[in-house]
């Protein structure tokens, strides 16, 4: 499947747009490194998922580590993935789920 990559707005990252969307959106977080996980976002987009991956800490104007991250960092990204009837996911483990697993 063809995937189009676009830079995200307001925060450093990438949006991977599938050629044939399934109506599912995913926020992909790079774990304790805070890195942009573009390969995982592309993998999901290959399956029809609209996927954003962003640098959630360690970037310009952000904390050096994964603490005191404003919820808006995630809420704004998830809001951008919303479509009527869409399912949303934030895949990850441990600290990624702790950061993204808060109630949306």
Class based on secondary structure composition and strand pairing: alpha/beta
**Biggest sheet character:** 5 strands, mixed
Q: Helical element count?
A: 3
The succession of helices and strands, N to C, reads: EEEHEHEH
Measured distance between first and last alpha carbons: 30 Å
Describe the protein.
With 104 residues, the chain is α/β, with parallel strands linked by helices. It has three helices and five strands. The chain has helices at 38-46, 72-81, 94-100, and strands at 3-7, 13-18, 24-29, 50-54, 87-89. The chain has a five-stranded mixed β-sheet with strand order 1-2-4-3-5, sandwiched between helices. The longest helix is centred in the last third of the chain and has 10 residues, at 72-81. It is elongated and about 35 Å long. The relative contact order is 0.24. The model has no long low-confidence stretch (mean pLDDT 83).
């Amino acid at each position: 499947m063809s995937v189009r990559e676009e830079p995200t707005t307001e925060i450093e990252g990438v949006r991977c747009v599938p050629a044939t969307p399934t109506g599912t959106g995913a926020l992909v977080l790079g774990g304790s490194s805070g890195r942009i996980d573009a390969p995982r976002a592309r993998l999901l987009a290959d399956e029809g998922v609209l996927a954003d991956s962003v640098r959630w800490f360690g970037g310009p104007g952000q904390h050096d580590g994964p603490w005191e991250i404003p919820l808006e960092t995630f809420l704004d990204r998830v809001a951008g993935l919303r479509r009527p009837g869409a399912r949303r996911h934030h895949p990850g483990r441990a600290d990624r789920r702790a950061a993204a697993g808060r109630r949306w």
